[in-house]
Amino acid sequence: MILGIGVDVVDVARLAAALERTTGLRDRLFTPQEQEGRAIHSLAARFAAKEAVAKALGAPRGLGHLEAEVVCDDTGRPELRITGKAAEVAYGLGVKRWHLSMSHDAGVAMAYVIAEG
């Protein structure tokens, strides 16, 4: 059963400017694994995924961006690793599985998340 759906769209150039302008922002938004060798459009898609997770959970207060991490399995397929308060909220809702789709084109990145119970 679908317990939550979230979608988010990110302007790649706007995120790039924010990361360049704000010292330490990259480390507040992305785990070291997410940052490793990633181009800005890939980071933008990951940021959209984090925002989409929050929306799928009902946008509760107090979630941190590092609590939703995009990791890739052995085949390169993106998956979500949820920790901290986000994991607590997901557990409370009965989330058992996450589905993630990300894409980027023409200066825009997007992510779609489904929380399944």
Descriptive account of the structure:
With 117 residues, the protein is α+β, with helices and mostly antiparallel strands. The protein has one domain (2-116): 4'-phosphopantetheinyl transferase domain (Ribosomal Protein L22, Chain A). The protein has 5 helices and 5 strands, in the order βααααββαββ. The strands form 2 sheets. A 3-stranded antiparallel sheet has the order 1-5-4. Strand 4 and strand 5 form a beta hairpin. The longest helix is centred in the middle third of the chain and has 17 residues, at 40-56. It is globular, with a radius of gyration of 14 Å. The model has no long low-confidence stretch (mean pLDDT 96).
What characteristics describe this protein?
5 helices, three-stranded antiparallel β-sheet, about 40% helix, Ribosomal Protein L22, Chain A, two-stranded antiparallel ribbon, about 120 residues, lipid metabolism
Short précis:
By secondary structure, the chain is of the alpha+beta class. The protein has helices at residues 12-21, 25-29, 32-35, 40-56, 84-93; strands spanning 2-11, 68-72, 78-82, 97-105, 108-116.
User: Biggest β-sheet: count, sense, barrel?
Assistant: 3 strands, antiparallel
Radius of gyration: 14 Å
CATH class: Alpha Beta
Report the portion of residues in β strands: 25-35%
Mean pLDDT: 96
Cα distance spanning the termini: 5 Å
CATH superfamily: 4'-phosphopantetheinyl transferase domain
Oligomer: single chain
What's the total helix number?
A: 5
CATH architectural arrangement:
Alpha-Beta Complex
Low-confidence stretches: none
